[in-house]
Design goal:
Number of helices: 12
CATH superfamily of the largest domain: Vaccinia Virus protein VP39
CATH class of the largest domain: Alpha Beta
Strand order of the largest sheet: 3-2-1-4-5-7-6
Shape: globular
Structural class: alpha/beta
Distance between the termini: 43 Å
Number of strands: 7
Oligomer: single chain
Radius of gyration: 17 Å
C-alpha cells in the first residue's frame, strides 16, 4: 500500500521513484522494508519525502536527477569536484533527498579507493547522479578509471553532465543499461567494485561479476545500504559464507539522515 502510494507520488519515471522506493520497497524485501521504515522513529522522514514527491508531481517538476543537475550547474564551481559534491550534499539536505552514498559513508568508500591504489580500475553498479563516481574519481591518478553502470536513462544523462561539470569525464565512463546485460560485456580485472543499486540484485550481480572473471585476489567489493532496515540477509550470507571473501561490516547511517545503516566491505580471496 505505502509502496504503491509512493510510486504514484514519485510519478513519471524510474529516476524520480528511485529516491524513495529504493528505501521503502525495492532496496529490501517488500515486507521487511516497509515495516522497518514505518516505525515511529522513521515515519517522519518517510512522510516528508512523500510530501516532497507529491509537491513535485503536482508542480510537474523535473525528475530528481535533473533537479540535482540544474542545482549543481547553478551553484557549484565548474571543474571543482569538492564544490560539486558539497552542492549535491546541500541539495540533498535542504531541497530534495538524493540516494547518494553521502559524506559519512563516502569517507569509508574513499578509504577503500585509496587502498585500491591511484591507478585502480573501479566498477560502479548504480550511478544515479554521479556523486560516488566523482567522490572516487577525484582520488585516482592519471591511469585510474571508473566504469559505471546505470539502468535509468534520466540518471545517465544527469550523471554524465554532473561528472563533466566536475571536470572528471576523462576518468569516468557511464554505460547505460541493466547490470545483468552489461556485466557480461566487461573485460579485465577491477580493483574495486562499488554496489549501490537495487538491493535484491547485489548477490546475483556479484555472482555474475565473478563468473565474468572481473575480480582478482585482493579486489575489494563495497556494498552500500546493507543495514537491517534493508533486510540484506541474502547478500550478507553469500559474501560471509561462500568462502571467496574476507568480509567486514561498517556501521553508519542512511545518507543525510540519522537512520541506521551499514556498509559491507569484502576482499576477494580467489
Amino acid at each position: 500500500m505505502v509502496a504503491a502510494w509512493a510510486a504514484c507520488l514519485c510519478g513519471h519515471g524510474e529516476a524520480n521513484s528511485r529516491t524513495l522506493l529504493l528505501l521503502i520497497s525495492k532496496k529490501a524485501t517488500p515486507t521487511m522494508s516497509m515495516l522497518g521504515f514505518l516505525k515511529p522513529p522513521h515515519l517522519g522522514w518517510v512522510v516528508r519525502n512523500l510530501r516532497d514527491a507529491l509537491v513535485d508531481k503536482l508542480k510537474g517538476s523535473p525528475r530528481r536527477p535533473e533537479q540535482a543537475r540544474a542545482y549543481v550547474e547553478a551553484n557549484a564551481t565548474r571543474g571543482d569536484p569538492a564544490s560539486v559534491l558539497a552542492t549535491l550534499d546541500d541539495f540533498a539536505r535542504h531541497q530534495r533527498f538524493l540516494m547518494n552514498v553521502g559524506p559519512e559513508k563516502g569517507q569509508l568508500l574513499e578509504a577503500e579507493v585509496d587502498r585500491a591504489g591511484k591507478n585502480a580500475r573501479i566498477l560502479e553498479v548504480g550511478c544515479y547522479c554521479g556523486y560516488s563516481a566523482i567522490l572516487m574519481a577525484r582520488r585516482l591518478g592519471e591511469q585510474g578509471r571508473i566504469t559505471s553502470l546505470e539502468k535509468s536513462g534520466t540518471s545517465v544523462a544527469a550523471a554524465r553532465a554532473i561528472v563533466d561539470f566536475a571536470g572528471l569525464s576523462g576518468a569516468v565512463e557511464i554505460r547505460h543499461g541493466a547490470s545483468s546485460e552489461l556485466i557480461p560485456t566487461l573485460e579485465g580485472n577491477f580493483d574495486l567494485v562499488f554496489l549501490d543499486h537495487w538491493k535484491d540484485l547485489y548477490e546475483p550481480d556479484l555472482r555474475a561479476i565473478e563468473a565474468a572473471h572481473l575480480l582478482r585476489p585482493g579486489s575489494i567489493v563495497f556494498a552500500d545500504n546493507v543495514g537491517s532496515l534493508f533486510d540484506p540477509k541474502q547478500y550478507l550470507a553469500y559474501v560471509r559464507e561462500c568462502g571467496h571473501y574476507e568480509s567486514r561490516s561498517e556501521e553508519s547511517h542512511i545518507e543525510y539522515t540519522k537512520l541506521p545503516d551499514c556498509a559491507e566491505i569484502s576482499v576477494f580471496l580467489g
